Every structure is written in structure tokens, then in C-alpha cells.
Q: What sequence folds into this?
């Protein structure tokens, strides 16, 4: 073998077996040592010592490489500029994940959850089996939220931030819809979307009954439950049948409703002569005065 080919073989071998600095490392205990990067190192040394409640440390790769180089370790930079070191935890995340799924399915029965990622705010070594879980207020509206864990074993409270990967079917406006319109199936379209954030509970099932919009909707906007309302039994500025009962006397006439009203509510009406009266809604388009 010529010297030229021998040199190329040695050079290629060095690249093939050279050790590189990675993006992520996990450690047991509180010490992050050089041996976590290179398990074959003979003279191990401490790089970073964790405080008891800390679970992650981030280094810039350039500074960490310089530190290692000063200790005689020459590594290839295989990172994206940052190195994340995390402590291992004994938490059973599968149990927590099941509770999170149950919580979200309470509000979105048809939601399809593919993954849940956890971003710990403090280090949790072990919760034990006896713990309680409390969600942040209205966490169900967000893809990323936080929850509180209380461990009966340790008596400590911990906070965890989580992030869902999920999708669900919702209804969107199929065209621009004006406020007050009586909704029909042609006004809405069903669409599967990636769950990010909602402004309220979206309409997820086909609408039943006579419903109208409480606000104007632009085409493509998600329809929320707070955007719609049941059509009132008596409509404002519309004719309404009036029943008057006094003893054995019963009269019926037509008046104009001055406001929307539902059954059992009291509303103002106006007779044809302009006189205003109060009446109670008895059934759709029928009110009664006594």
C-alpha cells in the first residue's frame, strides 16, 4: 500500500470513528461529567453540578467545546448550537397522560390525541402512586398548558407544562354570515383541524333546533357555542298573538313584540293603538296578559 493511500485511510478512519458532541444528554443523579459525553474517558471530570430542584441545563456548544478542549477532549460539533442536559426522573408519565386525555375528552369527545410532550418546571424524582392532579383554569382551550401535581408521599407540589399533538373536527362558516341569521346546514362546513388554541368551546356536533348567530362570522372562521343562541320564542319587532284573561273573559288580538323573549319570560309589547303592555311568553309566538 502506497503512503498516499495509507494517509487517506487513516484520515477517513479518524472521521468515521471521531466522537461528536450531541444535542441532548441525560444523567442520573446531580453530576454531569465528561464520561456522559465520552464513556471511554480515563480521567473523568465534572462539567456541571445540578441543584436539587433543577432538572435541565443548557450550554452553548461553542463554550462547552472550548471547556472540553482545555481538558484535552477534541470533539466534532454535531449540535445545532445548543446542548441540553436533563436529569432522569422516575415519574410514570403514562398515568399522567391518561388523566390529561380524559380531561380533554370531557370537552372534546372526538379529539384524536397522538402525543403529549412534557416540559418540567422543576425536577421531580418520584411522585409515588398517591398523587392528585389539578389543571390550570380553562386549560382545555390550549394545546400547551400547565398542571399542578401534589404528591402525598413527599407532601410537595410540582408544576408541569405539557403540550398536546391533537386534532379534531369542528364547524366553520362556509361563507360570510350576518348577525341574527337563522342557521341552516348550508351555512356551516365540517373540517378536521390541528388543535392549537380556542376562544371557547367550538361547535363539534351537527346543530339541532332553530338557532341563530349572535355575531357576524367571516367565511372560514370556527363557530363557537357562544356565537349561537336558540331562536327566541318571540322575536323583536314581529307580530305576536296576545291572549288576555280576566275571570271568565278571554280575548285575543295581535300586537308587536318590542323585544326577544323565551317561554316564561316577561316582555314588552305594543298594541296597534300604540299602547304598551307587559306580557309573559306562553309558547312560540304567543304571549299572555292578565
A:
Amino acid at each position: 500500500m502506497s503512503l498516499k493511500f495509507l494517509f487517506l485511510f487513516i484520515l477517513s478512519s479518524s472521521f468515521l470513528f471521531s466522537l461528536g458532541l450531541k444535542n441532548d444528554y441525560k444523567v442520573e443523579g446531580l453530576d454531569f461529567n465528561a464520561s456522559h459525553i465520552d464513556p471511554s474517558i480515563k480521567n473523568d471530570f465534572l462539567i456541571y453540578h445540578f441543584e436539587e430542584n433543577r432538572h435541565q441545563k443548557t450550554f452553548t456548544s461553542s463554550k462547552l467545546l472550548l471547556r472540553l478542549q482545555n481538558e484535552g477532549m477534541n470533539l466534532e460539533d454535531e449540535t445545532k448550537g445548543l446542548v441540553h442536559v436533563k436529569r432522569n426522573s422516575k415519574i410514570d408519565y403514562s398515568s399522567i397522560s391518561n388523566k390529561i386525555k380524559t380531561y380533554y375528552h370531557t370537552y372534546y369527545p372526538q379529539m384524536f390525541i397522538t402525543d403529549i410532550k412534557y416540559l418540567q418546571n422543576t425536577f421531580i424524582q418520584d411522585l409515588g402512586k398517591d398523587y392528585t392532579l389539578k389543571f390550570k383554569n380553562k386549560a382545555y382551550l390550549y394545546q400547551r398548558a400547565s398542571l399542578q401535581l401534589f404528591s402525598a408521599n413527599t407532601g410537595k407540589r410540582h408544576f408541569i407544562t405539557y403540550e398536546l399533538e391533537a386534532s379534531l373536527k369542528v364547524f366553520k362558516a362556509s361563507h360570510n354570515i350576518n348577525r341574527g341569521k337563522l342557521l341552516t346546514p348550508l351555512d356551516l362546513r365540517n373540517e378536521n383541524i390541528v388543535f392549537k388554541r380556542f376562544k371557547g368551546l367550538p361547535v363539534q356536533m351537527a346543530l339541532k333546533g332553530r338557532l341563530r348567530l349572535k355575531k357576524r362570522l367571516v367565511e372560514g372562521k370556527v363557530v363557537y357555542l357562544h356565537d349561537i343562541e336558540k331562536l327566541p320564542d318571540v322575536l323583536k319587532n314581529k307580530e305576536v298573538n296576545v291572549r288576555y284573561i280576566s275571570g271568565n273573559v278571554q280575548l285575543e288580538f295581535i300586537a308587536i313584540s318590542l323585544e326577544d323573549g323565551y317561554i316564561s319570560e316577561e316582555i314588552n309589547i305594543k298594541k296597534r293603538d300604540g299602547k304598551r303592555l307587559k306580557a309573559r311568553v306562553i309558547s312560540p309566538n304567543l304571549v299572555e296578559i292578565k
